[in-house]
Amino acid sequence: MSVHTTFKVGGPAEYFACPKREQIADIIALCKKHEIPWHVIGNGSNLLVADEGIPGLVMEIGRECAQVAVLGNVIKAQAGALLSVAAAKAAEHGLTGMEFASGIPGSVGGAVVMNAGAYGGEMKQIVTKATVLTGDGAEKELSLEELDFGYRHSSIPQMHGIVLDVEFTLLQGDPETIREQMAKLRRQRSEKQPLEYPSAGSTFKRPQGYFAGKLIQDAGLRGYRVGDAQISEKHCGFVINRGNATAAQIHQLIRDVQEKVKEQFGVELKTEVRFLGDF
Question: What is the pLDDT of residue 228?
Fold first, then answer.
């Protein structure tokens, strides 16, 4: 799984599939029939997979499920499309509202599941509806209200849903202004984030009333290492892989940070990163 995650770590999946949209329901039904556990991933940008790997099937909704279409001021994207590609398509058609998403490294489906956001924007501001495969194998269209977006939250995990398609509704804008804003955000991201190293983006959720990176810095943990896993010196909210980190080292570092911040400030840091496998 190291080639399917942005952390660049993780052992093998027992089974692996990268299906077309119309194959997803059949694969889930097959897993149920044979009692095979399954896990759904997107671009692997918010994921830490154990070094020993994962039993069962990993289904990557990615390149085979990545169509993006523009209809007026509406973008319809399949779940496997990269968010950056959808944002670029919006800019190409002079549609504004998606600039914040242009540098987020995840897939459309993954971004909707966790209501991804950056630079003051969130999925809930631009998503109109999403089609999901529910836990009982039926396709269901969810409205914005039914998606119940909150901070790094949607209703999709609770219903054991798999995102299939997403509809974004944007506004007409000036293409040059949109491109300039996207370029500005790219520069900010490059200046402030350790993009030169593998990571899963912001490792921790923002605790109410605090900033995770500031708490970690104030705890004296800038540059803290466990093997090749390190708290970034550039941005303390990022855990990076300096080259040869293991999932166990990254997991240990995360646990160390949580313990030290809790000990010093009484604040519980919760992870944005999802863990797959035995930790």
Answer: 98
